[in-house]
Amino acid sequence: VEYIQACSEPERCLVFFDGALVVTFAEVFEAEGREPYVQAMLKLLRASEQYQVPLVGYVDTSYAHDLTTMVHHAAGLQKTERIHDAQILNPLMQWGERIPLHRCDRGGILNYYEEMGNQVDFTYLKTTREGYPARLEIPSWVYKSGRLGALIDRVRAEVVVGGGYPYAIETADQTAVIQSQDRQLFYRIFQDWTRQEDIGLRFSRKMVSKVRRR
Question: How many domains, in total, are found in the chain?
Answer without folding.
Answer: 2
